[in-house]
Amino acid sequence: MALRFEPILAEGIAQVSYFLCDESAGCAAVIDPRPDADIYLLKAQQYGVTITHIFETHIHADFMSGARELASRCNGSAKIFVSVEGDATYDFAHESVREGDKFEFGQVKLRAKHTPGHTPEHLSYLLYESHEEDPWGILTGDSLFIDSLGRPDLLGDEKTEELTKALFNTMREVFCQLSDKVIVYPCHAAGSACGPDIGDRMHTTIGYEKKHNPFMQIETFNEFKKAIQDSAPPVPTHYPKMKNLNAKGPETFGHTPQVRSLSVKEFEEEMKNTDTIIIDTRDMLAFGGGHIEGAINIGQRPILSVWAGWLIDTNAPILLILHEDKDLERVVKLLWRTGHTNFKGYLAGNMRNWQESGKPIKKLPQLSVHELSENKEQYQPLDVRKNKEWQNGNIPDATHIFLGELSDKINTLDKEQNLAVYCASGYRASIAASILQKNGFQNVNSIPGSFKAWKAAGLPIENRTEN
């Protein structure tokens, strides 16, 4: 019999939840669960324990909380514990937690610590051995990350100054005061937009962060404020919607959301709804070779969650195109994590059935980097990478529009131009090119391999420096 403490990474959204149990006590806690909750139930079954506590460090903005979904599957054994600091309110059944509240799970105990800044209500949880007074670890949620801090600008401009001050105080008065040996377990790993340039390890220590985290080395508020503002990545469009949904309480299913299979005729009927979004999850080369007109290509990788969040309204009716029918559950879980549950169906038999039914097929030309280089006067390169990627070099004479802002800036592009769309490796390029096609751009080309292939081929790069 032993204490178990396990991080559980949700790739794509780069979110880390935690499963904590003491087998001898027979009880378990889950911290910051994702909605596809089977993994926690399987852990409880594996260790022969019952999940009794579900903790949320704060009201999440980047993914759909799985607290209510997990609680519904625990058949009444588990309660949801949320912070009511900062006057936070919720529209679902919960247990209130405040600064100093303690919880014991056999050999380990948790103590709530108010760490505002990322959000007003944010709590971290100090981890102790049951007989010790000094913590050995801390669950920092979205307040302290590896090499980074949680961003304070997600509640709008009117709250940013207040939250920036709170974050500075949390960093100086809470985290910097902890022992160097305390292990830090954050809610996000590298790839999340909840903080700037989050490091790529799963955990760290207070001592390491004091030495290497640039924000923890700043001693004045004005310098801290400038560093936070200058480093802030773009705010994904789904963040405000997710925060409201998580405070209200997401719908529960008791299982992975079910999606019905559709014949070609049924699929066509659903397509008649002008609000419906067709997501084609196949590889960019397969999509380029032939797809249903109007489909958006977001390939079946973990990052699908993030780009669906950025680009597709959570209430939009969704039709799915899969590589194979067996991919359905995986794709649905990825979409569920950023709040997409309005599924109208998927095309049974995928594109094979569509093409064998004699239905029209749209192509998206794929342009190699060599073809682009040899015929550069015929194409206008369009770079859809992040600003920081763009600043580190680009294909000469390219236009830059970040993918997350493409829909808002699409009217700045000339529909008559022969566009060659690229990103780092091609995944985002295909998303962007499919959006352009959907919006009536006829002369669009996607570049497989994109900037990585361009550099690997030894082709010229335009270097730039930040203003």
From TrEMBL:
This is Hydroxyacylglutathione hydrolase. InterPro entries: Metallo-B-lactamas, Mito_Persulfide_Diox, POD-like_MBL-fold, Rhodanese-like_dom, Rhodanese-like_dom_sf, RibonucZ/Hydroxyglut_hydro. GO terms for molecular function: hydrolase activity; metal ion binding; sulfur dioxygenase activity. Residues 272-363, 375-463 form the Rhodanese domain. Keywords: Hydrolase, Metal-binding. The keyword Hydrolase applies. SMART domains: Lactamase_B (SM00849), RHOD (SM00450). It comes from Aquimarina intermedia.
